[in-house]
Amino acid sequence: MSDKFSTVEQQASYGVGRQMGEQLAANSFEGVDIPAVQAGLADAFAGLESAVSMQELQVAFTEISRRIQAAQEQAAAEASAEGEAFLVENANREGVIVTESGLQYEVLVQGNGAKPTYEDTVRTHYHGSFINGDVFDSSVVRGQPAEFPVSGVIAGWTEALQLMPVGTKLKLYVPHHLAYGERGAGASIPPYSTLVFEVELLDIV
Asked: For the PPIase FKBP-type domain, which residue ranges apply (predicted)?
């Protein structure tokens, strides 16, 4: 039991504050002032008049929103440029094949089984990373192959899988327009991300 928060009421109150803090941390902005947050929470709970006028609040929220949007646009532009530069250089490496769509791949293991079609479901092992090497998802690490429709994945995968006889392992270099595009994928994949996958086609199911 916590020495600082010894009663059930204190512990539950701390839990409420903790949850609010986690939500704020997940949707924060540069310069957030925790004492001001605490003061706003206390004033609202006590039913006191706001220390900041509604007009001032609206101006502040609008400015913070503008700053967040500007930062996101800058990060997206940098990610797009970095990805394009990476792909230009990577395309010149020996063994890298570039398709008409812009997908790049190299053959790590050549299989000799059947090739899946757009309508098929496949079982694969994969390892996904950003161009800096940071891993964002991996069935290999989980130790559990993944099954999914060929038509139900990102465009770069859909294209690549139909080129792969069962038993093949490819390394894919997927431009953002064949991956998650300008929106990204939740918190794990930022907008305009070029992605790298090692994909092994285990079976057509």
From this structure: 119-205
64-75 per-position pLDDT tens digit: 999 999 998 898
Active site residue 126: yes
CATH number of the domain that residue 106 is part of: 3.10.50.40
Q: What is the residue range of 148's domain?
A: 96-204
* CB-based burial, 14-44: b 16+ in 10 Å, e otherwise: eeeeeeeeeeeeeeeeeeeeeeeeeeeeeee
Q: Is 45 noted as a catalytic residue in this protein?
A: no
Q: Is 189 a catalytic residue?
A: no
Instruction: Judge whether 180 counts as a catalytic residue.
Output: yes
Q: What is the pTM of this model?
A: 0.76
In a domain, residue 190? The reply is: yes
Establish whether 203 is a catalytic residue.
Answer: no
Which percentage of the chain shows pLDDT scores above 90?
87
Do you know the residue count of the chain? 205
Q: Which of 86, 126, 130, 173 is catalytic?
A: 126
